[in-house]
Amino acid sequence: MDGTTIENQSTKPQLNRWHRLLQFSQQADWTLSRLISFLLNAVVFISLLTLGISTLVFEIMSIFEYQKGLADISTIEWIFAIGSLFLLRRYWSYSKQTSVQWWTIVTAPIIWYGKFVLVAMLFAGAIAAVDLYEGSSYFMAALIEGQNYDQLRSFSAIWLSIYIAVPSQQLIIQSETDSYSPKSHNEQITPEEPEVENVQ
Amino acid sequence: MFNKTLLFFTLLLAIMPTASMAKSPLLIEGCVELINIYKSNKEQRLLAAQTTSLSESLRAGYCLGVLDQYAKTEYRCRSDWFKRAKFIANYSLEDNPPAEDKLLELSCEI
Fold this sequence. Notes:
Helix content of chain B: 55-70%
Radius of gyration of chain A: 30 Å
Largest sheet of chain A: none
Number of strands of chain A: 0
Number of helices of chain A: 8
Mean pLDDT of chain A: 86
Largest sheet of chain B: none
Oligomer: heterodimer
Mean pLDDT of chain B: 84
Distance between the termini of chain B: 60 Å
Radius of gyration of chain B: 18 Å
């Protein structure tokens, strides 16, 4: 055995160890980034859910703001309530055709609404910042004088959230759709083609 | 299933009246409602009739009535009722607003 073979024999395990260490560190790094991503996603999800639920409760409570029962409900609020029932019925009938879990069915519209509320809060924050900078009082004026329009905006956001929260059509459970799909309709027609060819 | 849904809505409706949003004195509440209906002393806001409930319009009427009556009794109070309503409504965000008499008196000074 010459010097170079001994050297190779001693460096091989070192290289293997180095390679394993590199692999392990890469795996650890990858896992850590996915873990942080998961945690941040969970924080964003919970924040949006909390924001959505709390604002939704506030909006419903603001309908009955003076404890006067039906006398507290304006025409727009009646329209909102009836429209919401229709939209929820539609949402439920679409969602139950899919493989989406009940938890996703419940949270999807709330998450969408939370996103809308977040955007509205950013706008409000921008207006408040302008007020602070310029010494104006647009934000306070909007808060006191624009209550009815703010309610209209919230109702529109709630309707839109329920409307767009429907699951993807790709998630439709196949067994239920087979009899209605255009593909199965074509399959029923195709057997006639060979018969025509035979005649010719 | 139906009974559970019915129970849920019954509980929801039972809770609703206890969860009142209104905390300000009646005059301030009324003036807030009034300036949400009117955008000036002559012109109403868009969709005011559709966005205002019976209880809100009663409160707005109370504010307008009090302002009108106060202006009749106090000879020095001749300013625009809308401006005075707006002045009073601005106190809705304060924790300890002045008493109604004081508010009416202050509103005449604008």
